[in-house]
Each structure stands twice: as C-alpha cells, then as structure tokens.
C-alpha cells in the first residue's frame, strides 16, 4: 500500500472495504430490522470457526474512502452496522461522525480487543477467548453476544457477563456449524439462567446476506 494511502487509513479516512450491503439484521437485539452493513477488512484474532475468514487479510480489500461508504449507506437505510473483520483495528471516529451528520443510527459489532473509537448508538460486544476485550468497552457495551462452540463457552460467557455494565443485554448464540448440537444446550441454559437470551443467525435461516 502506498504511503499516502496508508496515512489516510491510519487516520480513518480510508478503510479496506470487504463488502457493503443492505439487508435485515439477523442477530441479537436488533434482529429483524433493516440495516446497511459495512464490513471492514482486517482481523488478527483468528477464530478457527469464523464464517468470514476472507475478511482477515486487509491487504486484499480495496482502500475505500469513507465518503463513498456514507453516500452508499445513506441511500438505503437509517441504521448502519459497522462490522468486520475487526473494525476497531482502525480509527472509527471520522466514519461514525460523518454517518451521524447524516442523521443515521450507527451500530458496531466488535470483539472489543482494541481501543474503542467512534460515536455509537449501539455496541454489540462479541468477545473472543484468544484476545479479550479492553476494560473500557465492558463499561459501555449495550449487548454481550457470546458465540457457543463448545461447553466451555458457557463458562466463558459467565466470566464476560460479570464484567459488563448492569444495562448490558446478554445473548448466547450457537456457532453455525454446531447449531444442532449446541442449540438445545443453550435453550436449557437460558431456561435455568433467564438473565440470558438466545440469539440465532436468523439471516442464514432466511437465506439472506
């Protein structure tokens, strides 16, 4: 990447864009609502079950101006979800400020492993064992979404829930390839621990992006 482009990336004015699309939010609290998704490339956390591994290498995704992203998003929706990859790899301040100037609600889906930047209307924290969230994001997360791949993830979920703020909503979501095995366990767990809710990847059941 040329130095001048890298400088813009470092400032958050240009970001490696994997994809952007208008669809229905499939997971968590806002499931079933229309939103414009901006998926930023680049992630070094490396979850073995990740369903968007093609997002990991930022170098293969075109550096794109945030003006272009905002223009496209504002043509479709009032709510924008920034996801990845790991969006907090980058400075989210300029992008979120521009989206907010257009009167848009701005959400993020993040592992929380990097410094929180940007102005957000909703923060979905989806922590990963291999690189835990920063202390600051626990205090402001609106939603904790723990992906359940095996039984130890219930322990991990409780450990993470003990660190979030009192208003944070708690969700357990089966990893897609393990949904038939883990979903019944999640249902039983939520029935015994009703502070948790079940999250499903409903967009996959509906066969939409």
Automatic annotation (TrEMBL):
* Superkingdom to which the source organism belongs: Bacteria
Q: Which cofactor does it need?
A: S-adenosyl-L-methionine; [4Fe-4S] cluster; Mg(2+)
Q: In which pathway does it act?
A: Purine metabolism; 7-cyano-7-deazaguanine biosynthesis
Top-level EC class, please? lyase
Q: Which UniProt keywords apply?
A: 4Fe-4S, Iron, Iron-sulfur, Lyase, Magnesium, Metal-binding, Queuosine biosynthesis, S-adenosyl-L-methionine
Oligomeric form and interacting partners: Homodimer.
- What family does the Swiss-Prot or TrEMBL record give for this protein? Belongs to the radical SAM superfamily. 7-carboxy-7-deazaguanine synthase family.
Question: Any idea what this protein is called?
Answer: 7-carboxy-7-deazaguanine synthase
The species this protein belongs to is Aequorivita ciconiae
């Amino acid at each position: 990447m040329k130095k001048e482009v890298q400088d813009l990336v470092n400032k958050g004015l240009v970001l490696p864009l994997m994809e952007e699309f208008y669809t229905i939010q499939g997971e968590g609290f806002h499931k079933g609502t229309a939103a414009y998704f901006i998926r930023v490339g680049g992630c070094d956390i490396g979850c073995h079950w990740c369903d968007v591994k093609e997002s990991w290498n930022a170098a293969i995704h075109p550096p794109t101006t945030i003006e272009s992203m905002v223009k496209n998003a504002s043509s479709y929706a009032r709510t924008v979800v920034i996801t990845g990859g790991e969006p907090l790899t980058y400075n989210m301040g300029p992008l979120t400020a521009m989206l907010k100037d257009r009167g848009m609600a701005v959400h993020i889906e993040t592992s929380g492993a990097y410094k929180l930047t940007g102005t957000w209307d909703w923060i979905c924290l989806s922590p990963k064992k291999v690189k835990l969230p920063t202390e600051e994001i626990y205090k402001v997360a609106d939603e904790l979404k723990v992906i359940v791949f095996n039984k130890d993830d219930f322990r991990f979920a409780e450990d993470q829930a003990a660190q979030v703020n009192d208003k944070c909503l708690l969700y357990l979501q089966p990893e897609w390839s393990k949904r038939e095995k883990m979903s019944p366990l999640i249902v039983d767990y939520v029935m015994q621990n009703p502070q948790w809710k079940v999250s499903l990847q409903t967009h996959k059941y509906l066969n939409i992006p």
